[in-house]
Structure formats: C-alpha cells, structure tokens
C-alpha cells in the first residue's frame, strides 16, 4: 500500500531537491528546441488540412509544462520556462551566425540550409514572445486551478490551462510573425485552427499526463500547492 503524499506549499517546493526534476526539465527544453528547429520549417498536408509539422510535437512541451507545475509547483516550472527561453535565444543566435558564415566553394548545401534554418527576425521574435507568455499563462492558470479545486480534476486543469495558455501563444505568434504579409483573414484562420489543434492534442494526451503525473508524485512523495508563492515571472524563490 503506497504512502499518502505530504502536502507542501509552493515556496517549500521551490527549495526542495527532487529526484526526477532535472530529467523532466531536460525533456522540456529538448522537446521545445527540437520542435522549433526540426518541425517549424515544414508544411504538411494530411486529409486536405495544411499545418506546420512542428504542431505535432510542440504541444508536448505544454504537456510537460503541465507536469512540471502539477508535480513540482509553479516556482520550478518558472525556472524551466526561463531555461527554455534562453535556450531558444541561443538557438536563434547560433542559426543566424551559422547561416551567415560564407560557405566553402565546394559545399552545395547553402540554399537548403538557409531554407531550413534561416528564420527571419519576425519569426524569432514571435516565437520567443509567444512561448514566454503562453507558458507562463499556462503554468499560472494550472497552479491557480489546483488551489481552487483542491487538487481534484486534473483533466480539467490541464485542458483548461492549455486553452488559455495556447490562446495567448497563438494570439501573439501569428500577428507578430505574419501580420502585413498575410491577410487579416489568413492570420485569424491559421491562429484559430492551430489553437484548436493544440488544445485537441492536449486532450488526447490527457491519459499520458495522468500516468506521468501519478508516477512522479508517487516517487517524489509530495503534493505541491502554490498557496505561498509570488507568481511574478521575474520573482525568485528565497534560498534556505
């Protein structure tokens, strides 16, 4: 028979050392970078529906973000969002530098390299802004809903936070990236369509979220409720 979980507040959770937190954080950053690096440049078409291929994997970072907030608390999720944000900045900087370097006369891959990695400044700015805002909104809503529900109805909290977080993400990304080059109707259509697909994907992955959250909570032995925490994205948890 498993032992009951010990309830701790958000500040205690921020100070606590967890067994598996580093692995979850590494998975979050890795999926974030790979979904932007590999999937962002390709348009796919399945059943007559055209979409960015990265949409199949980028929402997984939101699922892991839900796991981080649910299991480890908002403060630890905040650390991961900042880690992902700065990792994306470095990825963008490295892409700009590598693409701009003069190719060797015998190398014929420059055009393909530019097509895949040569994102414009607007796309980079849109990606960084949308990710930062969307992830923080997602984590904030999930943490607050956990307090409101007393830790019940995980499915409601994960899907509800994704609805709001992905809405913030899409509402920022598409206008910043494409307004002026796409028509207003195109921006709105793609924005709503991709938002709906991301929320649907989150709902489909809900059983996986339950399994991962349950497994991690059992091994960490605690239940974090963020009822003693500064929710500012710029706040720092005081060290013991």
Calculate the terminal CA-CA distance, rounded to whole Å: 33 Å
Q: How many E strands?
A: 4
Shape descriptor: globular
Helicity, in percent? 55-70%
If you average the pLDDT, what whole number results?
A: 89
Largest sheet: 2 strands, parallel
**Number of domains in the coordinates?**
1
Question: What string gives the helices and strands in order?
Answer: EHHEEHHHHHHHE
Radius of gyration: 19 Å
Strand content: 5-15%
Question: Which regions have little confidence, pLDDT < 50, spanning 5+ residues?
Answer: none
Which structural class do the helices and strands define?
Answer: mainly alpha
GO molecular function: transmembrane transporter activity
Membrane topology: Multi-pass membrane protein
GO cellular component, one term: plasma membrane
Pfam family, one: Vut_1
SSE layout and pairings?
Blueprint: E1 6-9, H1 10-15, H2 21-37, E2 43-46, E3 49-52, H3 58-72, H4 74-100, H5 110-117, H6 121-149, H7 154-178, H8 184-204, H9 206-220, E4 222-225
Parallel strand pairs: 1-4
Antiparallel strand pairs: 2-3
Give a structural overview:
The relative contact order is 0.18. The chain has one domain (6-100, 111-225). A hairpin with a 2-residue loop joins strand 2 (43-46) and strand 3 (49-52). Strands 1-4 form a two-stranded parallel ribbon. A two-stranded antiparallel sheet has the order 2-3. The mean pLDDT is 89. It has helices spanning 10-15, 21-37, 58-72, 74-100, 110-117, 121-149, 154-178, 184-204, 206-220, and strands at 6-9, 43-46, 49-52, 222-225. With 240 residues, it is mainly α. Helix 3 (58-72) runs parallel beside helix 6 (121-149) and helix 4 (74-100) runs antiparallel to helix 6. The two termini are 33 Å apart. The protein is built from 9 helices and 4 strands. The longest helix is centred in the middle third of the chain and has 29 residues, at 121-149.
């Amino acid at each position: 028979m498993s032992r009951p979980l010990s309830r701790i507040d958000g500040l205690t959770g921020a100070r606590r050392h967890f067994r598996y937190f580093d692995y979850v954080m590494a998975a979050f950053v890795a999926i974030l970078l790979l979904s932007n690096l590999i999937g962002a440049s390709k348009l796919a078409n399945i059943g007559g529906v055209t979409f960015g291929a990265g949409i199949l994997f980028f929402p997984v970072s939101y699922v892991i973000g839900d796991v981080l907030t649910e299991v480890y608390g908002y403060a630890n999720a905040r650390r991961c969002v900042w880690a992902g944000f700065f990792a994306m900045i470095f990825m963008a900087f490295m892409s700009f530098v590598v693409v701009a370097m003069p190719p060797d006369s015998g190398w014929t891959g420059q055009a393909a390299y530019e097509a895949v990695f040569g994102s414009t400044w607007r796309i980079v700015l849109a990606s960084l802004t949308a990710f930062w805002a969307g992830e923080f909104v997602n984590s904030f809503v999930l943490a607050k809903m956990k307090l409101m529900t007393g830790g019940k109805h995980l499915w409601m909290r994960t899907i509800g936070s994704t609805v709001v977080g992905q809405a913030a993400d899409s509402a920022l990304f598409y206008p910043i990236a494409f307004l002026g080059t796409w028509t207003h109707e195109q921006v709105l259509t793609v924005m709503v369509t991709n938002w709906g697909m991301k929320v649907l994907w989150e709902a489909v992955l809900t059983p996986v979220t339950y399994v991962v959250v349950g497994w991690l909570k059992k091994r960490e032995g605690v239940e974090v409720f963020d009822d003693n925490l500064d929710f500012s994205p710029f706040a720092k948890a005081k060290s013991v």
